Amino acid sequence: MFLDLVLEFFRSYLGLFLLWGVGSWLAYNRYAYGLNHIPGPKLASLTNFWRLFVVYGRRAELEYIRLHEKYGSLVRLGPNLVSVSDASAIPVIYALNAGFIKSDFYKVQQTLAKGQPLLTLFTSTDEGYHSKLRRAVSNAYAMSTLVQSEPYIDSTTTEFIRQIQSRFADKPGKICDLGFWLQLFAFDVIGELTYSKRLGFIENGIDVEGIISSIEGMLDYAAVVGQMPGLDKLLIKNPIRKFCSKLGLLNSNTYMVSFARKRLDERVDPLTGLEKLEAKLVTDPPRRDFLSRFLEAHKKDPDMITNQRVLALTVANVFAGSDTTAISLRAVFYYLLKNPADMQSLLNEIFEQKRNGKFARADGLVDWKVVRELPFLDAVVKEALRCHPATGLPLERITPKAGITVCGKFIPGGTIIGCNAWTVHNDASVFGEAPKEFRPRRWIDASQDQRRLMENSILTFGAGSRTCIGKNISLLEMYKLIPAFLMKFQVSQEGTFCAISGHYNSLSAFQNGTKALSSTWATPLKLGVQNIVCDGSSAAAEVKAENTVCKNRLPFTTEYRWVCSFNDENKIVKINAYMDTDLVTRVIEQNS
Ligand code: HEM
């Protein structure tokens, strides 16, 4: 009887209780974190769902730039998250021993090996563990070490140029999806540097074993779920899944870990944990790739650099170093194609070197010691990395207990705070006028002091204790590939084609598609396309993509970019689906 009364009471007032619960939760979010003095969208201060949806909607960085333009240097992006766009905050937040630690955003990116998170340099949030691991291997990433690897970058570059020649330049009229090919290049370079083995991306012109889409899928997931990291424990890292995989009932290994494990098994003796003798690379001079350097570190300090950590280090190379470099290379070519005057200035600089005999190698490649001194190439790379940094979200850290003062405002301890390269790079007081425009000359025309300020304010590779350890690798790759490629080929963006962004359900055409170049943590939304309607012409519903003929709808998980070719009457005659890129180009051999 009493129980019935209680149940009846609850049933009558359930709605009210729910309302009260949600109201209290929202009020708690808004007021309990001590961030009411930080401006920002109201909804953002009430719930992290706001930012989750912003990131899910893609191109979050554009929304964050807009918010900083509206509210100033500090914007509250969540109940407990503050974004800072003032570059003077970089040394405060990211400095060595400043007491800031990476937020749980990074835990979502921890890959799983046998159900357990693999703590890589990139994803570890334990600063003590991180600094020991970093100290043990940092030498392998020093420029002085890496220049010894130049021949291996050269061998990938040679193969890349050979494939572009035979697949595109030798076939007049054939369209080259340069963005995709640059991605294959970046993946093969990392494979060659890490395992002394190109993984076959370029030779075969494909995403080997689906590793690229696996990484992109992982980044897409981490970007969105990272806004509310607790969700990860329900989805991928839930205890039941972890338990089952510990018992071997479920394979929860992240695909990328299985990929790295396969390469390791080819090289490492399971009994000793050391490199198999027969797998040692006997070359003259002796070839030392990242894996052999990590195994040497293991031999020196097996307690710190365990076999599992050797695995983690190689995974971090592929995870953190391939997509980011691909995005940056795409950005360079994209901006050069969009700015023909800058492309011409770069070609002038490159061909002058050739005339002066500085680019005298018979194989048409270029040496680091020469290219690092080309001022316009340097300005182009810096400007592309400024205009399109590969990471599109704040690099989140947790403030130390005592709190800090940033841009004149106090931020309590335990707050998540971060700078986002996109918003920091949009500051005209640092980078000069029209910061949204690609202007390589701003680096050349700047005074020495201004240039130093600009260089110190660039956040493309992060900053401080967790700054990118692979920066030198990607610079080496970019500075060597761009001149070698441009000496060999003329590239033009395909003018008679029209790229249509594949990430809206009803499509709108725009000439020479200028949508996202794809940004890690900010790639365009992957939606199947239902209707293809373009400029009033009803395009055929049948689209061919990678040997699959799809009627009206493509798989949810794959990103396509629609490229229509028009006839003289501006009617679509053909539609091709390309992978996520705007770099639909024609490549022909240089004649100068
Ligand atoms: C243009 C190419 C690249 C870009 C834009 C880039 C960007 C970044 C950024 C922004 C961070 C800091 C993340 C944070 O603070 O939250 C980072 C860290 C890292 N990057 Fe890169 N990266 C690039 C290339 C590479 C390459 C080629 C490798 C390795 C082969 C690499 C390996 C790493 C690792 C291991 C970390 C973690 C470092 C640590 O916490 O100690 N990156 N990268």
Overview of the molecule:
The protein is an alpha+beta fold and 592 residues long. The chain contains 25 helices and 19 strands. The strands form 7 sheets. The chain has a 5-stranded mixed sheet with strand order 1-2-10-7-3. Strands 6-19-11 form a 3-stranded antiparallel sheet. Strands 12-17-18 form a 3-stranded antiparallel sheet, with no helix packed on it. Residues 121-122, 134, 190, 316-317, 320-321, 324-325, 328, 390-391, 395, 460-462, 466, 468-470, 473-474 line the site of protoporphyrin IX containing FE.
Quick summary:
By secondary structure, this protein is α+β, with helices and mostly antiparallel strands.
List keywords for this structure.
592 residues; alpha+beta; five-stranded mixed sheet; three-stranded antiparallel sheet; 25 helices; 19 strands
Topology:
Layout: H1 2-31, H2 42-46, H3 49-56, H4 60-71, E1 74-78, E2 81-84, H5 90-94, E3 101-102, E4 112-113, E5 116-117, H6 127-137, H7 143-146, H8 150-169, E6 176-177, H9 178-195, H10 201-204, H11 211-225, H12 230-234, H13 239-246, H14 255-267, H15 290-300, H16 307-321, H17 323-338, H18 340-355, H19 368-371, H20 375-387, E7 397-398, E8 404-406, E9 409-411, E10 416-419, H21 421-424, H22 428-431, H23 441-445, H24 448-457, H25 471-488, E11 489-493, E12 497-500, E13 533-534, E14 537-538, E15 542-545, E16 548-551, E17 560-566, E18 572-579, E19 584-589
Parallel strand pairs: 2-10
Antiparallel strand pairs: 1-2, 3-7, 4-5, 6-19, 7-10, 8-9, 11-19, 12-17, 13-14, 15-16, 17-18
Protoporphyrin IX containing FE (HEM) binds at residues 121-122, 134, 190, 316-317, 320-321, 324-325, 328, 390-391, 395, 460-462, 466, 468-470, 473-474.
